[in-house]
Amino acid sequence: MSDTPTAPRAVLADDERLMREQLRARITEVWPELQIVGEAKNGLEAVELVKEHKPDLVFLDIRMPGLTGVEAAKQIAQLPDDEDWALPEIVFITAYDQYAVEAFEQGVCDYVLKPAERDRLQVTVERIKKRLAQRSGEAEPDGPSTGTLQQLLHSLTARVNPGGAPKYLQWIQASVGQTIQMIPVEEVLFFISDEKYTRVQTPTVEALIRKPIKELVEELDPQLFWQIHRSTLVNVKAINGISRDFRGRQLVGVRGLDEKLEVSRSYTHLFKGM
User: Fold this and answer.
1) pLDDT at site 160
2) 218 in Cβ contact with 166 (< 8 Å)
C-alpha cells in the first residue's frame, strides 16, 4: 500500500478546447491516478486555479492569449508556499519548436508536444513521478540541479519572443541612510523583501529599495542570483555553505556574514546533493 496520502493533482491550461480534451484523455490513459482538478483557457485562469487548488503539477500551453504559459509560470513561481504545499511541477505544452525543446534539457521542467502522443507523454509522466517522489523523500535525488526555474523561463522568453532577451540590471540605486548610492549588482550578496522594502546587502553596505523580489527576479541574471524563498534572492558566488536547523529547514550561509538565509520547500531542489 502506498504511503502517499492523496493522489497527485493537476491543473491543465490550453486555449484550445479540443487540445485540452485530447490531452486529458491521453493523461488518463498513462496516469489514471492523476486528478485533473481544474482546466483553464488562458494563463490568468491557470494562475487563479493554482492559487485555489494548490496542485502538484501544472500543464501550461506555451502560447496562450493575454498571458502566455511562460508568463503564467513566472507568476506561479512567485506564489507563496507553506508547510502543506510546495510550488507545482511545470509541464509546458508546445508545438514542435527545436529551440524551445532544447531549453527543457535543463531538466527543471518538462514538455509535451502537440498533438500529445502516448509514448512521449509516458516519458514525461515518469519524469514527473520521479520528481514528486524526490520532493516527498521517497526517492534519492539524481544530483544537484543544473539549472533553476528562473533560468529556464528566461531562456524560454527569449525563444518564444525572438529579440526579447532580457538585459540584466548592472546597478542598484538604493537608499543608505539619508543618501542614494549606486551599488554594482555583482557586489550584492543577497536581497530580502518585507511588505514595503527590499534589503540590499553587500559586504560593507546595507541599503533599501522599493522594488519587490518578483520584479528583481525578472531583471537580474538568473545565472548569478538564485531565488531560494519567495522573499529572498542570493548571489550564487556568495554562498559558502548549506546547513539545517533543528526543524530540518535548509539554511544558506553567506560569505563574510553570520546571517543565515532560509530556503523554502519549493527551492530545496537547488541544493540536492550538496
Assistant:
1) 60
2) yes
Please give the grid coordinates belonging to residue 26.
Answer: 491521453
* Residue found by looking up cell 498513462 in the block: 30
Residue-wise pLDDT for 245-265, tens only, equals 888 889 999 999 999 999 988
**Nearest one of 164, 115, 151 to 227, comparing CA atoms:** 151
Q: How far apart are CA 44 and CA 69, in angstroms?
A: 9
Using 50, 70 and 90 to split pLDDT, how confident is the model at 66?
confident
Enclosing H/E stretch for 225: strand 225-229
DSSP string, 28-76: HHH-TT-EEEEEESSHHHHHHHHHHH--SEEEEESS-SSS-HHHHHHHH
Q: Which amino acid is present at 74? A: K
Predicted TM-score (pTM) above 0.70? no
- Residues 78, 214: contact at Cβ < 8 Å? yes
Instruction: Report the b/e string of 157-186 with b at 16+ CB within 10 A.
Output: bebbeeeeeeeebeebebeeeeeeeebebe
Residue 81 gets the label, from left (phi > 0), alpha (psi -120 to 50) or beta, of beta
DSSP state of 190: E
Sign of CA dihedral 104, 107, 110, 113: positive
What pLDDT sits at residue 265? 83
